[in-house]
Amino acid sequence: MRNDIILGIHERMKEDKNVYFLTGDLGYGVLDDMKNEFPDRFINVGIAEQNMMGIATGLALTGKKVFVYSIIPFATMRCFEQIRNDVCYHDVDVTILGAGSGLSYGILSSTHFALEDIAILRSLPNMTIFSPSDRYEAVEGLKYFQNFKHPLYFRIGKKDEPEVYDENTKFNLREGMKLRDGKDGVILSTGAITSEVVKAADILKEKYKICLSLYNISIIKPIKENHIFDKCLGKKLIFTVEEHGVVGGLGSVVVEALSEVKSTDRIIRLGTKDFFIKTVGTQNFLRKKLGLDCNGIVKKIRKYY
Amino acid sequence: MKTDLPDIAFSIREMIISSLVPNESHHIGCSLSIVEILAHLYFREMKVNPKTPSDADRDIFILSKGHAALALYATLCKRGFFGRDLLSTYDTDGGQMPEHANTSVPGVELSTGSLGHGLSVGVGFSVSFTNDKRDNKVFVLMSDGEFNEGSNWEAIMFAGHHKLSNLIVIVDVNNFQGFGSTEEVIDLNPLDTKLKNFNWETHNIDGNNFSEIKSVFLKIKNSKNLMPKIIFAKTIKGKGISFFENKLESHYKSLSLEVKKELLENYEK
Q1: Is the ipTM of this complex over 0.90?
Q2: Cα(A124)–Cα(A115) distance, rounded to whole angstroms?
Q3: CA distance B243 to chain A (A)
């Protein structure tokens, strides 16, 4: 996912001399070509994310389009006040590319996990949040947002994520993509974990005769409540799945949308819970341990039927 | 209209006192200390045109110590960016002039209020102008206490390393910060040496003295150094209101209507 996005932006920088790319000292093996080809517009600001976000704002105020790149907690939490007061308050053309969504960084452990980013960025006015599930959706997002001139957050995995779509997919990013159809309830998922959710939905249908609709939501903010109602109202059981905390992410988006309308639907949020993950392991191992792999998702959902 | 700087400064101070909302407005001392610097910048130094506030060739001024917004607003008003009608809405319900600098006011380039942001944004402007080979200059006015914020040092390191010579920082050294003097909270003396070590060209002046201000900006203009510049401007917090001068409380205390009226009598000529 990440490498495809970088390539896309690299192409953009060739065509558009107004595009800048800032990194917080990351990019070894990934950004080398960009660094060599655009010595003026590719800037390694060093390990200084607050300054990076301030510089991005200053550049954008002179009319540049700025991409800012780091690992998610550094790109969003270290400099949150700058995102709030500088980027969002001034509503500038800065795109935050956050790498390592959810548990992507696995064995690097907690400081590198991204389980709160959607929650905190959702709280900021003028912020748009894009959470693609695979490389095809990520590249589609670059196209979709290419003329977008406001604060934007790309929540990227890493690389070699299992594919959900293919090169022929006709995307509908605005409303979300329907991946499965079923009458027994609905699942909404976002991000790279969607590939596990697809497997889970198929297991639930084939093995347990529980047929659920599955939607992949990639634009988490702004979200039109109608799009949530269309998918969820009256479905009785609504599950949300994300590699993010159950506080403040996609699950909360759905809960918030449905809370003001008359509904007897139950919303069950799957995600990480309220404790720091001390288990050590790769992303796949952690997902298994936390019940966020396809079998864990199946087990959790079955309890409601 | 009188155009010599002491008259302009006098007028700006009158506008500051006149705009204060009795028992409501704070940060008065913070605004009063920087009047001479702002007067010089907006009436002698910077390429700005109130008729074309978005001119791409204009110099940029960022008030990083955003709590001194009133001084900036008064200066912009005096310079012709807007009229006294607007200035009179300062700190009032439904007005568009909050107590911290805001881009809702014509001529204000950046909304500030949290210390440690302005310099990084200024660096962003500076990089853009440098890469595009533009002649625009970037001026950032910081407070001395503001140097406690680590984010500034990120910007300082970056600017020094990248030799951003179109970036000029002025520090309002009035020796007071939030809850004590700058020396008792965190003593950064000698601050100029520290900046020299980060590859900045440093200057020290009396920030309320027009001839020293004029002289330092001339020196900077003629400087061949490929370095960002910083001026440590020693000022008197609260200058212009005798019972506020050099007092920490001038950061916080508001004025009653009676005192405001009394002070304004000194400005009737």
Answers
A1: yes
A2: 17
A3: 35
Closest CA to B201 of B229, B226, B224, B221: B229
- How many Cβ pairs within 8 Å bridge chains A and B? 83
Question: What six digits make up the tokens of B231?
Answer: 């001026």
Answer whether A57 sits within 8 Å of B120, measured CB to CB: yes
pLDDT, tens only, A174-219? 999 999 999 999 999 999 999 999 999 999 999 999 999 999 999 9
Interchain CB distance below 8 Å, B121 and A57:
yes
Question: Are the beta carbons of A149 and A281 closer than 8 angstroms?
Answer: no
- Cβ contacts of A187 within 8 Å, gap of 6 or more: A180, A197, A200, A201, A212, A213, A214, A215, A238, A239, A240, A241, A301
Query: Which residues on chain A are in Cβ contact (under 8 Å) with B128?
Result: 58-59, 62, 64
Contact A55 B127 (CB under 8 A): yes
What pLDDT band is residue B2 in, cutting at 50, 70 and 90?
Answer: low
Q: How many CB atoms lie within 10 A of CB B265?
A: 7
- Among the partner-chain residues B111, B127, B151, the one whose CB lies closest to the CB of A90 is B111
The contacts of residue A118 (CB under 8 Å, 6+ apart) are A129, A131, A155, A220, A242, A244, A248, A249, A250
Q: Are B103 and B52 in contact (CB under 8 A)?
A: no
Flag if B154 and A53 touch (Cβ within 8 Å). Answer: no
* CB within 8 Å of chain B, chain A residues 70-109: 81-82, 85-86, 89-90
Give the angle B34-B40-B46 at the CA atoms, nearest 5°.
115
A256: helix, strand or coil? helix
For residues B80 and B54, give the distance between their C-alpha atoms in angstroms, rounded to a whole number.
14
Whether the CB of A122 is below 8 Å from some CB of chain B: the reply is no
Alpha helices in A23-176 (DSSP H): 32-37, 49-61, 72-76, 80-82, 117-122, 135-144
**Contact, A114 vs A102, CB < 8 A?**
yes
Lookup: tokens for A3: 């490498």
Residue A296 burial (10 A CB sphere; 0-12, 13-18, 19+): middle
Distance from CA of A145 to the nearest CA of B (A): 23
Is residue A128 helix, strand or coil? Answer: strand
Whole-angstrom distance, CA of residue A138 vs CA of residue A157: 10
- Residue B61 three-state SS: strand
pTM recorded for the entire structure: 0.97
